[in-house]
Fold Alanine racemase.
Amino acid sequence: MYSIATIAEVTGAELLQPGDTGRSIAHLLHDSRAVTFPDSSLFFALQTARSDGHRFIDDAWRKGVRAFVISHEVDRNAFAGASFLRVPDTLAALQALAAWHRAQFDLPVIGITGSNGKTIVKEWLQQLLEPEHRIVRSPRSYNSQIGVALSVWQLRPEHTLALFEAGISQPGEMERLARMIRPTVGVLTNIGSAHDEGFLDTEQKRSEKGRLFEGARAVIGPEPWTGLLPQHISWGVESGASLHMVRLEQGTPTLVQAEYRGVPVEIRIPFSDEASVSNALTCTCVLIYLGYSIDTINERLAGLQAVDMRLQLKHGAGGCTLINDSYSADFTSLQLALNFMAQQQTGQPRTVILSDFAESGSAPDRFYPQVARALEGAAVGKAVLIGHDVTRHLSLPPSVEVQRYASTEDFLEQYHPAQFHEETILVKGARHFRFERIVAALETRVHQTVLEINLNALAHNLKQYRALLAPGTKVMAMVKAFSYGSGSSEVASILQFHHVDYLGVAYADEGVALRQAGISLPIMVMNADASSFDVLVEWQLQPVLYSFGILQDFERYLQRAGLQAWPVHVEVETGMNRLGFSSVEIPSLARHLQQTGWLRVQSVFSHLAASEDPAQDGFTDEQGARFATMVAALEAALPYRFLKHISNSAAIIRHPALQLDMVRLGIGLYGVEIETKQLELEAVATLRSTIAQLKRLEAGETVSYNRRGVVKEASLIATVRIGYADGYSRRLGYGVGKMYVNGHLAPVIGTVCMDMTMIDVTHVPGVREGDEVILFGKPLPVQQLADWIGTIPYEVMTGVSQRVKRVYFQE
Ligand SMILES: *Cc1c(COP(=O)(O)O)cnc(C)c1O
C-alpha cells in the first residue's frame, strides 16, 4: 500500500486536486465496471485508440472511487474531495508505478515470452515449483502493456518467486514491459508467426523479444540464443543444445532420451501432442537450471495437469447458468470471475461455490475479509463453501445464505438437483478440490451434441474489423436469427461489454428477448409490423420504416399512445429490391419527416446486394451513389442530424469508401470472411457431437435407410449423435459430407437420419465409442461444409436447431 502523496512523487504527477493525500492505495483500476474496493483504489483514465478512460471517471466516482490519474482536464467540481493526479501519459504512469513497486523486491523473477505457450509454461512452472515456493504470477494471460503492470503490482513481501508473462505485438513494446518485470531468468517459449503483423520479420521480433532478457542471468528455451548472456540453457536436436535430444517416442507418456552435459537422461512427459511436449521440455530446462535432479523433475512432471484457463458458461439443471472456473482459486482470478458473472445479464440471483484459497495459508485473518468484500460487492446471495479453511475463516453478512462442506466428496454425497434453481452459479475451486466433478453434477446432459461458442473469438473478430474502420465510425452488430445461430443474449452481452453502438435484429421478438436478458444497447428491428408495435414500445425498440404503409401505421399508433419523437430508422432502396423507400418517394418522405413530431430519425440506411462479388463492384458503386443522392435530399429537409450506413461485413473490407457513419457487421463477427482472406478471424461456433456406437461390417453390407450406403471392404462404421433434426443437412449424406474425428476426416456413409448419422472411420486410427466428432468449427471451416452442399455459411450456421445445447467459453 502506498499513499497518494508517494504515488504522485513516483509517477511525477502534478497534484491538481489533493483530496486525501494520506489515502492508502492497494488496488489499481482501469475499468470502472470492475470496482470492488473503492476506498483503496486508484483509477487510471487510460486512453486507447478506441476508448477514453476519462469518460468513465463519473461511473467510478459513483461507485465510491476517490483517487484518479488523468492526462487531461476534467470537470473537477463534480468530484469534490477526490484526489486528481495529472500526468502527460496515464499508461506510462501506471507502468512507472509498477516498475517502482517491482524495485522494492529482491527475489527470483522468471520472465516468460514467446509466440505461443506463455500461459501454459507459466502455469506449469507454478505447478512444478509450488512445493518449495510462495509464487506470485500473472493472472490468466495478463501479458499486455496493462496486464503486466497489474501482474507486477501483486508482488508482496511473502513471495519467494515470481512468474510473469510478457506479450508484445509491435516493436518498442518490450522495453516498457522489461522495466516492470526485470526478470532474473528469461524463458523464451518459441518464435512463431503468431502476431507477426507489427514486425518486419522474425529477426526483428526475436531481437525485440530479447530485450526482456537484458538484465537476466540466464535464458532458457528451445532456440539457440546468440545474445551476450552469461548462461543459456536450450533444448533441441542439434548437438549444441544443452539438453540434447537423441530420441523421442510419442505417446502417453512421451519418452524423451537426451544428454545433459554428456550424461544420458530420460524425461517422461504425460502428454503426446507436440505443443505440450515442447512446453514441458522448456519447463524441464528451467527446473534443471534451478538445480532440481532429473528424478525429481520426472516425479513432478508426472503430476502435471492440462491447463484449461477458460471460463466456461453453460446451462445447468433447474434453469441455472453455470460459470465453470474450476482451475484455480486465487484472489485475482476470483475478481475476474466475479466480473465475468456480473457481465452476464442473466437477471438470476448469484451463487458461488468456493474452495479454500491458495494464498490464504499464512494470513487467513487478513485474506478472507477481502474475499467477503469481493462477494458482497458482486451481490452474491448464496455461498457454498467447501474446505477446511474457507468454512472456518470466511464470514459473510447475514444477508448471504451460506452452506458449508468439509470436502468435495461431502458436497457430492449430499447434493440434490433441487438444491439450485434458476441461479447463476460460479464454481471456483483450487485444482486439487477437483470441482469439475461438481460442474458435471450441476450440468444437464440430455443430448450430447453441443454448439460451442467461443466468446473470445467473437471479441477478437470485432477487434479485427474495428481496425479497418476510420476513427469514429460506429458499429451495429447484427444479431438476428439468434446471432447467426450462436445464441442471443450471451453474444449480445459480450458485444455490449465491448461497446458496440447498436444491435440489429430481424423481428421484434428477438429484440424483446435481448431486453429481457438485460441488454440496454439501442436495438434496431428490421422487420416490424403493426402487430408488434406494442412490444416495440414497451421494450424500447427502434423499428425500421421502409414504406409509407408502415410509416403511417406506426405514426398513428404513436399518436394514440401519445408518444413523441420515437426513434426510428429509414431504409431506402438502392438495388437489393427487398425493403426500402424508392427514389421517387424520397421528396414526399422528406416533406413528411420534416413536419412530423412523432418520429425521430436515428439513421438512414440501405443494403448492398453483392458487396462480396468483384464482378459486381460497378453495381455496388452505383448503389453507393444512389444512396448518397437520397440521403442528401433527406439531410436537406431534416433540421437535425442522423447516421448513414450501407456496409455489411464484406463491404467493410472491399469497399472502405462506403463506411460512412456506421457499418453493420454480421457474418464476419462470427468468424467467416466471405470471398476475401484479409483478416485473421477465429471461428466462433464449433458444432460437436460424440460417437454412440462402433460396428465392424463386412464387404457388401449396407448402412442406413434404403440401403444406399454400401460397404465395399471390411469397414469400421461409427454412429454419431447428430441428424437433420439438429441441422445436419440430409444433403451431406452419401459421402458428400465429412466429419472430423481424432484429427482425420471421415466421410458420411448412407443417408443422414433424423437424430443420427453414420460415418466411415476405417482409416481413422484409435477411434473409440464416446469419442468426440467435430461437424464444423476450427479444424473444419463452416465454409467447407457449405461448399460441399452448394450453399452459403449463413444457412449452415443458422440451421443448427434450437435443441442443440449452446455452451459458451471465455478465456
Ligand atoms: C444481415 C444483414 C447485414 C449483415 O450482413 P453480413 O453479410 O452478415 O455482414 C447487414 N445489413 C442488413 C440489412 C442485414 O439484413
Notes: The mean pLDDT is 91. Residues 320 and 422 are 4 Å apart (CA to CA).
